[in-house]
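Q: For a teaching session next week I want to show students how multiple molecules come together into a single three-dimensional assembly. I've collected the sequence lines for a complex. Could you give me the predicted C-alpha cells for the whole thing so I can convert them for display?
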Amino acid sequence: MLEVEGVSKIYGGERRGFFGRAPQVHALSDVSLSVRRGESFGLVGESGSGKTTLTRCLLRLEEVSAGTIRFDGDDIGRLSAAGLRALRARVGIVFQDPYASLNPRMSIADIVCEPMEIHRARLGLDGRGRRDRAAELLERVGLGPQHLGRFPHEFSGGQRQRIGIARALATGPDFLILDEPTSALDVSVQAQVLNLLHDLQAQLGLTYFFISHDLGVIRYVCDRVALIYRGRLVEVGATEAVFQNPASDYARSLIAAMPDPDPDRSPFGPRFPG
Amino acid sequence: MSERLRRGLYRFRRSWVSVLGLGIVCLLLLIAILGPAIVPHPEHVAGLVQTGTRFQPPSAAWWFGTNEVGQDVFSLTLAGTRVSLLAGMAVVIVGAVIGVFVGAIAGFFGGWLDEGLMRLSDLMLTVPSLILAMAVAAALGPGTGNMIFAIALSWWPGYARLVRGEVMAKKEEQFVTAARAMGAGSGRLLRRHVLPNIVSPVIVKMSLDMGFAILTVASLGFVGIGVKPPTPEWGSLLSVARANMPDYWWTAIFPGLAIFLAVFGFNLLGDGLRDLLDPKARR
Ligand SMILES: Nc1ncnc2c1ncn2[C@@H]1O[C@H](COP(=O)(O)OP(=O)(O)OP(=O)(O)O)[C@@H](O)[C@H]1O
Ligand SMILES: [Mg+2]
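A: Of course. Below is the structure for the complete assembly, covering every listed component.
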C-alpha cells in the first residue's frame, strides 16, 4: 500500500545572508520500507532520528531530497492538486502532543467537521450530515455528542487524543499515521488509547503507520517494525523476529535497555486480550 | 478559556489603574455618542458668534470660560470629543486592517513577498507621520478624510510588524500543521487557524495606540491641516487658542486637558487589556 524507496531528506543549505548557508541536516538517508494493507507497521527511533520528518514527507508537507514514495502505486511527488487532496483525505494523522494539535479557538464540532468541510466534494455531506457524522465519530472514540460544543481546554490529555483520532477518521481514511500518539499520556491512559486504536483498526480495516520510541508499545501494537537511527533504517522485520533475534547492534542495545521485554508483564497487559 | 478569562478579569479589577482607564474611556465614549445633545450651548458649537461675552474666565456660568468670539469652551470641548475619538478610531482601525493584511501575508508566505512587504513597511516607518500627512494634504487637499488616510498610511507598519511575528510563530504550531495535513489551503489556514489566535495582541495594540492616534490627529489639527473649523476638534481648538495665550489660558488649557485625558485613559486601558488578554507580553 505504501512504498518508500531510497528516500533522503536534507534540511537547510539555503543561502543565509551574503556568504553563509544554513547548516545541513541529513534528517533521512536512503530510507526504504513498505507497508502492507491492513497491517500495523511500527517505526522506532530515538528523538531526532527522523521519524516525524518521514511522516511529513509521506503527506507531502515536505518535499523529499531524493527517492520516491508511492501510495497505492502513485508517486506522491508527482500528484496533481486534486491527487494531493485525495491523498490527504485517504491518509489521516494523529499527532504526538494532544495539547498542541487542537486549535484552542475551535469547538470540538468545528475541529472534527473541518476535514469533512475541506473534502466535502469527496464526502458529499451537508452541514447537518457533517455534524451527525462528527457525533458518530465522537461516540466511536469513546466520547459523545454532548462534547460537540465544548472547547479543547475542557478535556484531559487522553480525551484530547481521542478527539484527534476522531478528526483523523473524519474523512474515512484507510491509512492512519500515528506519530507517537501515546507518548504524552499517563501509562493508564496510554493503554486505553492503544486499545481504542486496536479496536478501530479491527472495525474499520485501517492500515497503521505507528511511530514510537517505546518498544513496549510497538511490541504490543505492531506486526512489523523498522528501527531508525540518525535517519537510517538499521533493521526491518516482523516484530517478534526483531525482538527475538535482533540483527543489528543498535536493536540489541535498544532491547537490552527495555525495562521489561516480557509482553505478558508489560503495563498494557497481555497482548490484545480476547 | 472561561477559567483564564475569569482570572484575567480578576487581575483587571484588582489593578485600579486599569479600571480608571476603563472609566475614562467609557466616559469619553458616552460624551462622544451623546455629543451635541448634552452641551449647554449647542448654538456655539454650530458657529454662533457672540462678541459680547468674549474672553469670560471660567465661572459658574461658563465652566471653561469663553473664547475670542464668545463661544462656550466647555461646549466646544465636549463637542470635540466625537470628532477626535472618531478620527483616532478610524486611524487605528484603518491602520490595523492594512497592517494585519500585510503582516499576515508576509509572515505566512515568507520569501520574497515577506522581504518586499517588510522593506516597504520599513520605508513607511522612516517617514514621520506628520510630514507624510502634510504631503498628503498638499497633494489631495486638507480635510478630515485625507488626514485619516495620511495618518493611517504611517500607522500600519507597526501592525504589520506585530502581526508578521505572531503569524510566523503561530503557523509553526501543530494544529496548523494538522490542518495542512488534512488538506486545508492557505486561505483556510490563515482565516480559521492563524488569525483567530492572534487577535489578542492586535486588540491590545489598538487600544494602546488609540491615545497616540488622537494625539496625532490633534497635532495635525493644531498645524491646520486636519479637521477644519468650525467643526470642533481638540487640536484645532488648541491651534486657535494659541493666539490667546497666556492671558486667556482657559481657551487652550481645557482642550489640552481633554487630549491628555484621552491619551491617558486609552493607555491605562490598553495596559489593563494586555494583562487580561496577553499576559505573556507583560513588561
Ligand atoms: N524544518 C527543519 N529544518 C531543519 N532541521 C529540521 C527540521 N525539522 C526537523 N529537523 C531536524 O531533522 C532531524 C529529525 O527530526 P524529526 O523531527 O524527524 O525527529 P523525530 O524522530 O520525530 O524526533 P522526536 O522523537 O523528538 O519527535 C532532527 O535533527 C531535527 O533537528
Ligand atoms: Mg517526532
